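Technical annex, item 7. During the second reporting period the consortium partners agreed on a shared format for inverse folding records so that results from different sites could be compared directly. Each record opens with the tokenized structure and is followed by the designed sequence. A conforming record, contributed by the partner at site C, is shown below for reference.
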């Protein structure tokens, strides 16, 4: 049995991505709950990864850098207090692996946080459930950060990016075209609305706060990257929204995928390749905000949120 570790464990959770092209099939099979993808489905996903400059590896590296960045920030905030561990939903190390690693190191108290600012029972909620079940099994007491979508430092980081993006858009499209900021996030099945899920409302709150802080005159929210299942997903999709906006006379668009915190497939392919191709077809000038990745303000947001949850943990 591991000696008791007085440090507070921090389980940093995210969706996960393959480490190499060889891992894509296993990754896709895990997403499909053990059902291997059809050959054409696998070929399509592999083609998306191949289309991204640098392939799969930068996607995994982004998460690794965010975890190490959070560790650095926590060490500044409270030296020798926290130890970060990684837990992924669909790739190794899985969420359960991260909890097991903490337990093996003798950690008895831990905080869980997801690299996603907005809460949904189908996203963050599912991460928390898996982590809690494993923690209960191994005797680790856990507290969770469920959302941080209105943290002042997160809003500042996003506001800075929108301002920068608008400057680039005006330079590309000309000042005669009033720009529109198109906020977006990963779609989820429509049934979350029946559950009273806060996901959609939190996304709108973040969008509104950032738009106001950046002095944005025109903005809209849309969805992207919906899953391909039989049930209806939240819409309209960003490509449909772009078509509607073009018909309304919009000429300059700034894509702000605020539901995502790093450069990965849904940004590098769905926005930078698919949406850009659609923009060209529609005669739109499209720019995208830079993603948060390891931005110091984002790292501080995570560290503040972890520290607050840890104080609640110690109260208990």
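Designed sequence (site C submission):
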């Amino acid at each position: 049995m591991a000696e008791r570790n007085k440090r507070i464990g921090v389980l940093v959770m995210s969706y996960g991505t393959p480490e190499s092209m060889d891992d894509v099939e296993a990754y896709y099979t895990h997403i499909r709950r053990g059902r291997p993808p059809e050959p054409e489905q696998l070929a399509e996903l592999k083609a998306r990864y191949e289309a991204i400059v640098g392939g799969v590896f930068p996607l995994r590296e982004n998460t690794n850098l965010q975890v190490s960045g959070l560790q650095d920030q926590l060490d500044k905030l409270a030296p020798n207090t926290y130890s970060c561990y990684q837990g992924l939903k669909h790739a190794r190390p899985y969420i359960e692996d991260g909890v097991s690693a903490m337990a093996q190191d003798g950690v008895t108290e831990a905080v869980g946080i997801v690299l996603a600012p907005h809460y949904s029972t189908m996203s963050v909620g599912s991460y928390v459930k898996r982590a809690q079940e494993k923690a209960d099994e191994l005797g680790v007491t856990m507290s969770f950060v469920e959302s941080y979508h209105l943290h002042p430092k997160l809003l500042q980081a996003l506001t800075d990016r929108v301002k920068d993006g608008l400057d680039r858009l005006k330079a590309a499209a000309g000042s005669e075209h009033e720009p529109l900021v198109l906020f977006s996030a990963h779609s989820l099945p429509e049934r979350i609305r029946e559950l009273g899920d806060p996901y959609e409302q939190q996304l709108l709150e973040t969008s509104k706060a950032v738009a106001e802080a950046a002095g944005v005159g025109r903005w809209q929210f849309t969805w992207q990257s919906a899953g391909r299942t039989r049930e209806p997903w939240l819409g309209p999709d960003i490509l449909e929204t772009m078509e509607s906006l073009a018909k309304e006379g919009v000429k300059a668009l700034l894509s702000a995928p605020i539901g995502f915190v790093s450069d990965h497939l849904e940004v590098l392919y769905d926005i930078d390749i698919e949406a850009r191709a659609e923009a060209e077809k529609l005669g739109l000038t499209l720019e995208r905000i830079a993603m948060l990745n390891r931005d110091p303000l984002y790292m501080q947001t995570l560290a503040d949120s972890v520290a607050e949850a840890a104080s609640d943990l110690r109260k208990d």
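Residues 152-288 form a domain with the Rossmann fold fold (CATH 3.40.50.1400). The longest strand covers residues 8-14. All partners now use this format for quarterly exchanges.
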